[in-house]
């Protein structure tokens, strides 16, 4: 009978410098020769990671009051429109918002530039009120001049995501990259056995309040992500075979690094942002150990035709096949390419491991777990 552990016991081991921490790739190799009970007795924490495009991201900023004061209603940052309607001098920068004058520059670039310490041009207009008489402001801000600047991303770290292909006779341009005609290529965007939500598919340790690696600093899971879906089909290993769970995350962008927060432009699609996330999984019992022992060849995902509005499935592929450089679709050998960076994911998992080893990062028990049953509704025509 293997040992059962608690978060408190693991944190005490971290404090004493005795916690055994391995990356998700390392535990996948250990799984070749060890049982789940042996893993529980040997390992305390598994670090997981991903670094890929996550369009549903953004940042809140408080500029501080101007003199005379203004209640900002129309705001641009480096000519990128950002949200008004958040009291007087707050805004939300949506990552995919695009500049009025350069569609290849957008909210993601503003966020990255702010993190880098660059100056940003702000323009704001308002109707003017008795308590906020100013009607127009144009000045410069940076991360040191603003009060708060924190990342808040409504939907990150998809539990699994489909492989994108194009069956039509012309090239199409998507958030999964450029897809060549007649299934000329296939792209995917999950770090496989390193991917955070694939290592805790039932969300036993990941929930509201979970401390994570976010953009190079410590952040938190603030809620379950938008389009959170627990009802997707699962394979024999308990892994959803398509995009299922997601998380909403929050963290202090002033402390983040542009190494792990990167703006991007996808040809003829638009602006996006690459987010680096790492999540520690405490090995509390055999079931959690078994989930973390998953290997690339055991993780399957759907092959989706992005040239059709309803995106039908053309079959499944596993991550060992995807990483080999090619998969077979309808008898045709098709080249594969990742949208996410495995190199960066490995670096994040290793860095998170080092934080824990040095006693700089402790595990948190979620203050509330995610819903067990959740589906996604689509917008309907009237």
Helix-strand blueprint:
Blueprint: H1 7-16, E1 21-23, H2 24-30, H3 36-42, E2 45-53, E3 58-62, E4 74-77, E5 80-82, E6 90-94, H4 107-115, E7 120-125, E8 136-141, E9 148-156, E10 163-165, E11 172-174, E12 177-179, E13 186-188, E14 211-214, E15 217-224, E16 247-252, E17 261-266, E18 270-282, H5 286-292, E19 300-305, E20 313-318, H6 319-323, E21 326-329, E22 332-338, H7 342-357
Your description of this structure?
This protein is of the alpha+beta class. It folds into two domains: 10-55 and 152-357, no CATH class; 64-146, no CATH class. Helices cover 16% and strands 32% of the residues. Strands 1, 2, 3, 6, 9, 14, 15, 16, 17 and 18 form a ten-stranded mixed sheet that branches. Strands 5-4-7-8 form a four-stranded antiparallel sheet. It has a three-stranded mixed sheet with strand order 10-19-20. Helix 3 packs across helix 5 (286-292). The longest helix has 16 residues, at 342-357.
